[in-house]
Design a protein that fits this description.
Elements lengths: L3 E7 L4 E7 L5 E7 L16 E2 L1 H13 L8 E8 L5 E3 L9 E2 L7 H11 L1 H8 L7 H11 L1 H6 L2 E3 L1 H10 L3 E2 L1 H7 L2 E2 L4 E2 L1 H7 L7 E2 L11 H7 L7 E6 H8 L8 E5 L3 E7 L11 E4 L5 E7 L3 H11 L5 H9 L9 E5 L13 E5 L8 H25 L6 E5 L7 H11 L2 E5 L3 H13 L14 E5 L5 H18 L1
Parallel strand pairs: 1-5, 5-13, 9-12, 14-20, 20-21
Antiparallel strand pairs: 1-2, 2-3, 4-7, 6-8, 10-11, 14-15, 15-17, 16-17, 18-19, 21-22
Length: 485
């Protein structure tokens, strides 16, 4: 009888699931819901972003339906999820308000107040970050601004913790999850109690379970809803970027992963816990206990998606990529800032907004706008990548899944040329990585790397001449600095 590993990836726009053969590591099937639209995202005020956790569950169920009866042969479940979101539940495990998700900027000032109360140096020593706009700061914002709601809360969780709760009936989180919240102390190897106390969230911290291992079993009720066998263990859980690194086999110091979906990320693994004094990039606990330093630009694929749906909704992304290729390098002096998706950590939690600079109606059309959009995204990633190099977290090659912006050969080569990093593209995604993580947590492999024997490198892009992009970047950075003044 076949035996499968199920991976789930709770994204901002969709929930993806993947079945992986437990014996061979081969991908059997993948599905997502919704298939063409996006999960609703509410913005009650400018700079806010909320989603209903019930929507994640419903789309998880719909995606599972696409796998059919094969879900009855699942041996273990792995969960990946959008990082830094806040889910609050009451004593009856009922969600008390919509989730404040990763790109919501309302808690920036609250995080700054917490850092002042605890001491910035203490925050950097323990968490390697100040609370910033992370989950603990979001919970403290609710305490101050929605006291009646906060009084109902008994646990705070991340989006993946909530899915695990619905599957197992247990309210838990992981050390890597607490690190994403800014609630893990690297100095003590436990909860950062001083920050939790300052935030008023000590009583909300769930039980801590290992990132890999038995995190609970699918309940009878969840089995009836999902079709998964009752008693199936959840054996792995991680935020989307640590999980993306895992899915690409990125474990050791100096290895790097990248994504360019809704947000753009470069994630470099190291052995040493070293904070960025300017906090442009953020170290977190990697899934294997090492340090993963993360650069995030909030709006990469979302910026490119905005260009498509606003200016050429009748075109596919593949069509738009071809259109971009028809414009010259530098897009005839058109520059783009892609910062239209909330407060940017890499810019000190500032929000310069997205814009085009130098638009000339006589010279510029859709090809220039699409190409300038790509170049602006690459420049934003390069800007953050420079901060990583200052910290000794540079890399000469990055691995990425052949998806989202990396489906465009133009974008992949542009990234390689501008950063002078080789780009290696693989046939994998977050849901597939979570499924293989479930196999590690189940103990199917002698070494974690054995879970990725079936991982296939599809193509690579070696760095070419950087000179044209050096000039573009110099001009682009000047525009950014003008916008930040």
């Amino acid at each position: 009888m076949p035996a499968f590993l199920l991976g789930v990836d709770i994204g901002t726009s969709a929930v993806k699931v993947a079945l992986v053969d437990a014996s061979t590591g081969a991908v059997v099937a993948t599905r997502q819901s919704p298939e063409s639209a996006e999960i609703p995202l509410a913005a009650p005020q400018p700079g806010w972003a909320e989603q209903d956790p019930a929507d994640w569950w419903q789309h998880f169920l719909l995606a599972l339906q696409g796998l059919g009866e094969q879900v009855q042969d699942v041996q273990a479940v792995g969960i990946a999820y959008q990082m830094h979101g806040l889910v609050l539940v009451d004593g009856d495990d009922q969600v008390v308000r919509p989730s404040i998700i990763w790109c919501d900027g309302r808690a920036v000032a609250t995080g700054a107040e917490l850092a002042k109360a605890v001491g910035r140096e203490e925050c950097l020593r323990h968490a390697l970050n100040t609370p910033g706009n992370f989950t603990v700061a979001k919970a403290a914002w609710v305490r101050t601004n929605e006291p009646d709601t906060f009084a109902k809360a008994r646990h705070m969780m991340l989006p993946g913790d909530d899915l695990a709760r619905r599957l197992t009936g247990l309210v838990t989180t992981t050390p890597s999850g607490l690190s994403e919240m800014a609630g893990w102390s690297f100095a003590s190897g436990s909860t950062f109690g001083e920050l939790m106390e300052a935030a008023g969230t000590n009583h909300l911290v769930p039980e801590i379970v290992p990132t890999f291992g038995d995190q609970g079993r699918v309940t009878v009720v969840a089995s009836q809803e999902t079709g998964l066998p009752a008693g199936t263990p959840v054996t792995y859980r991680a935020g989307d970027q640590p999980n993306n690194a895992l899915s690409l086999g990125v474990f050791e110091s100096g290895e790097a992963a990248a994504t360019a979906g809704t947000s753009g990320v470069v994630y470099v693994v190291s052995d040493t816990a070293k904070p960025d004094p300017a906090e442009r990039v953020n170290p977190f606990l990697h899934v294997n206990g090492k340090i993963g330093t993360l650069l995030c630009v909030n709006g990469t694929g979302s910026f490119y998606s905005w260009i498509r749906r606003t200016m050429c909704a009748d075109k596919s992304f593949k069509d738009l990529n071809s259109v971009a290729e028809s414009a010259p390098v530098g897009a005839d002096d058109l520059l783009a800032l892609p910062y239209g998706n909330g407060a940017e950590r890499s810019l000190g939690n500032r929000t310069p907004g997205a814009s085009f600079q130098g638009l000339d109606f006589a010279r510029h059309g859709l090809p220039h706008i699409a190409r300038a959009g790509m170049e602006g995204i690459v420049c934003a990633l390069k800007h953050g990548f420079e901060a990583m190099k200052e910290l000794g977290c540079g890399a000469t090659s990055v691995r990425a899944g052949q998806a989202n912006m990396f489906l465009s050969p133009l974008f992949a080569q542009m990234f390689a040329d501008a950063t002078q990093c080789e780009v290696k593209l693989y046939d994998t995604d977050g849901a597939v990585g979570a499924a293989r993580g479930a196999g590690i947590g189940l103990g199917l492999y002698n070494e974690p790397r054995d879970a990725f024997a079936a991982l296939t490198e599809l193509t690579s892009y070696k760095p070419g001449d950087s000179a044209p992009y050096d000039l573009i970047y110099k001009r682009w950075r000047g525009v950014l600095e003008d916008n930040l003044r």
